[in-house]
Each structure stands twice: as C-alpha cells, then as structure tokens.
User: Fold this.
Amino acid sequence: MNQATDLGMLIMQRANALARCTETPGMLTRTYLTSAHGDAAALLAQWMREAGMNVRRDAVGNVIGRYDGIAPDAPALLTGSHFDTVRNAGKFDGNLGILLPIACVAEWHRQDRRFPFAIEVIGFAEEEGVRFKATLLGSRALAGTFDMSALDRRDEQGLAMREAMTAAGLDAAALPQAAYRRDRALAYMEVHIEQGPVLLDEDLAIGVVTAISGASRYLVTVTGLAGHAGTVPMGLRRDAAMAAAEIGLHIERRCSGSPGLVGTVGQLDVPNGAANVIPGKAIFTVDIRAETDEVRLAAVHDVLEEMQRIAARRRVTLDVSKTHEVHSVPCAPWLQNQLERAISGDGLPVRRLPSGAGHDAMAMAALTDVAMLFVRCGNGGISHHPDESMTADDARTAARIFSRFVENFAKP
Ligand SMILES: [Zn+2]
Assistant:
C-alpha cells in the first residue's frame, strides 16, 4: 500500500528544484522564453504527467495539465499561476500556485478519485513583464484578451517577442486559439503567496482574497524657482522640493486609516539638485490603490485637489499626468464563500484581505469568475526578493484547504 505523501515537504522540494532553472547562476531569474524558462516548463510538464494529467503547451507557452473528471469531456475548474520570475526573485511567487495543485492532483490520482468536473492546472508562461515590458501575457492569451501588438515589443537585445516565440518553438499566429472556451471553464482559483506582511503579522497561515486592488499612477513635475540657498529669505522662496514633500505627506495622511487603501510616492527626484541651491524643479510619482474603485477614485480626487491648493499657496506650478490606471477586480462572492467553508471546515479562522499586487487572476476574470487563496510569507512578508520565504507547514495547510475546496466545489 503506498503511503500518503507529505504535500508540504513535496511542494518545498519542488520549489527548490524549480528554482534551479535560472538564467543567472547564484540567483533566480527566469524570464519569458529563455532556456531556463523552457527547462522549468519541461519540469512542470513532467510533474503534471506523474500526477495523472494530460499535458499540453499552448501558443503563448502556458503549460496546462488536465485531470479529467468522471466524464472525460466535463468542463474544468481552472487553477494555476505563473512560472516566470522577476530578476533575483524568490522561489514561491507564482510557482507555489502551480506546484500546490499538482501535488493535490497527484494525491487524488493515487486514490483514483475523480470529480464531476475536470481540474486544469495552468503554469502561466509570463506574468511579470520583465523581458518585453508587457505583463500577464500567459493569462491574457488564455482569457482571449492578448494584445497582438505586444508581439512587436523587443527585449533589451532587440529581439522581438514574435521572434523569441518562434525560436522557442511556439507559433504566434496560433495565439487566438489559445483562448479558453468560455463554456468549458467553471471558475478560476489561484493560490499565491501574500507578498506582504498582513497574515504574518496576524499569525495566520492563509487568507481569502476579496479583490485585486485597482491602481492609479501619476507622474508629477513641480516647477518653482531655483535660487541661492544663502541669499533668498525663507518667505520669498518657491521651493519645488518642499512643495513635493508637503504633497507627499498629504498623500500619506489621506491614504492612512481606510482599510485596503494605500498611497505611495515611490520616486522623488530633484533634478540637478545641489546642497547650496533652492530646488527649482521636483519630479515624483504617485501610486494609489484600493480594494474598491470608489475608495480609490475618491482618494485620487482629494489628492489631486489638495496638490493644487499646496501648489497655489507655495507659488509653484504642477504638471500632472496619469501614467497608469487599472480597475479593481473583485473575487466572486460564491467562490469566496466556498473557500471560507473550506477554511472553517478545517478549524481555521477566516481572514479576508484585498490583494494590493496584480495577479493572473486579474486577467482570468475576463474569462470566468475568479478567487484567490493567499499563503503567509516569512521574513516580514518580503517578495520579489531572494529572501522571500514560506514554511512547509503553511504549504501543507494551504494544500489541505485547496483540496477541501476542490472536493466540495459546486457551481451554483
Ligand atoms: Zn506572482
């Protein structure tokens, strides 16, 4: 009689093995369609086959394993995440959401257990946007929202995405066929590390994502008047940097205190600044995110208004341009409820939280209802960094919750 595997340990071992597929020895960097990326795809395909799945690779390079339902042509519950990484990445971002369901499917396969629906585990080929500065390529191809003009984007070596695809044996012309048939997808559920400190801070292994936050981003140039730091009295100054500082503090205040709302000035520059010169120019970015679009847009509105008041009072001018905006993607309430039942059925407390970072689920929402299960990170919640960590215990817990969710899954 073969023994049940320790899924926590298996997931950790495979995360380590997968992390050895890297472009840069000594660190993990695995960008779209590099040979390391191809090696990782092959490894995932092998583990999927060993778990009893039929494996296919679509035109964008997604690795898709199908575990048939009781009826072989049953529609599928989709799950997965991305296997590309940022430069000098951690080994769980994305990868966990592929390795975990493969391990769970292997268990069902071992028990010869099938469901009234199929399970498809998707290793998305590209999410981070590192190589071609276009994100979510894998999930957009599957959701049928791939922007074909992205094929002409070039990497730092000048190679177009279309050429890189051909070199990797993929057929860009077949991309439209990578779109999943809407009536064949029951839902999409993604397991992902939290990439933040909330669960760690509250001593919880897992959480249910309520929504993927929308984001607004602005680039602001403040123009004042440069002057000699010694000769211009304080009352006569038009200091661009101090106007930027006051605006930054306002953003911090305005975005504090509402759950799910965050505001960041991530870049703050005084071009050609010098110790003895009053800054005549300052350039900064604003990034505001929230769980709901109402909360985000209200904060953006207030911040833009207050910026103008501060500028008028300080006699500086502003040039404000919007550089990015995405709407919030809510997780489907019926899927959240089923996840919560899986968690409370396991005797664990249910913590709901928004995702401040973007994920494949965002793109998949164009195809079907989506949900996400967050898993606690160690090391203060750091991610996109080699210190990113999680424990085998938490992997085991998340695998148990995922299994319970699937075993009780029913589309209303
Ligand atoms: Zn990720």
User: Anything to note?
Assistant: The first strand starts at residue 54 and ends at 57. The chain has a mean pLDDT of 97. Residues 206 and 375 are 5 Å apart (CA to CA).
